[in-house]
Amino acid sequence: MGHFSISDLEQLSGIKAHTIRMWEQRYGLLRPVRTATNIRLYCDDDLRRLLNVTTLCGRGKRISQVARLSDAEIQAAVLACGNDAHDYQLQVNALLAAMLTFDEVRLNQLLDDATSKLGFENMMLQVAYPLLQRIGLMWLAGTMNLSQEHLLSHLLRQKLLVATDALPPIGSAEAPRWLLFLPEHELHELALLFMNYALRSRGQHTLYLGQNMPIKELTMVCQFYRPNALVTVLTTQPERTRIGEFAQELLQLCPAGRVVLYGNLARQEGLVLPPNFVAPPLMTDFLAMISENNFAPVSA
């Protein structure tokens, strides 16, 4: 069971803390326990109920009406909400609520419904990524169960692989060639998998090497594949103090082509990257960038 502070609930639901307190005091909406120092702590059930109530209030229901409903009635009302494909908040809240109860069937259904309405790429950008950002807040708060995160990551990874495999073969031999990999000991590959999908869907060649790839192993790959650009995601690796050294090692592989470093570690203050390197702040920045075609080949 999670243990959330009221500030955690505010970040995860988007409802101000003073409003949550008012709903709690006036309507008995949530049932926190108190610590020995009189601090309110909320459980998974409280968070799930707040997310569902937020969804209904966002659809025009009055809190006074919603608060009188049982949990089952609230859930039924959420499921009966209109199928607005662009109500991203509704979809994110529903996914987060399903994740908290390990409801894999519901998670799959919600992701598939969002994909059918929005298209796969927009589902990832408008629903999956905001959900992952919420989960990141839960990690920072120490309220995320590792098994919950693994469930969602596994489902998204599976859907990325299936969607990529369903793309047609790349026909043009002149299309840019991208080499995608994660640094040694780096295991967080959802962003890289999505980049691979985005490149392939735009008719560009990719060679996806995945997790935990030592740089020394890339020399031979570059000799045979001759990519026009390298792409990697820096989530936890290398160590923050080694990013500059890591960039110089990549520069030896790619002195003339484009090198894309994505992730917070690539955007730390004071970091100076070689001229042919780019560190897009957002995934949408990367998507805008890959429409360019001025890629020089990597020197072996």
Which band does the percent of strand residues land in? Answer: 5-15%
Q: How would a crystallographer describe the biggest sheet?
A: 5 strands, parallel
Structural class: alpha/beta
Q: What is the count of structural domains?
A: 2
- The helix count comes to 13
Radius of gyration: 22 Å
Low-pLDDT stretches: none
Strand order of the largest sheet: 4-3-5-6-7
Tell me the helix content.
40-55%
Protein name: HTH merR-type domain-containing protein
Organism: Hymenobacter sedentarius
Keywords: DNA-binding
Pfam family, one: MerR_1
Describe what this molecule looks like in 3D.
With 300 residues, this protein is α/β, with parallel strands linked by helices. The chain has two domains: 6-164, no CATH class; 177-289, Rossmann fold (3-Layer(aba) Sandwich). It has 13 helices and seven strands. The protein has helices at residues 6-13, 17-27, 44-58, 63-66, 71-79, 88-100, 104-118, 120-141, 146-165, 190-201, 218-225, 243-253, 283-289; strands spanning 33-34, 40-41, 177-181, 205-210, 229-233, 258-262, 277-278. The strands form two sheets. Strands 4-3-5-6-7 form a five-stranded parallel β-sheet, with helices on both faces. The longest helix has 22 residues, at 120-141. It is elongated, with a radius of gyration of 22 Å. The N and C termini lie far apart (53 Å).
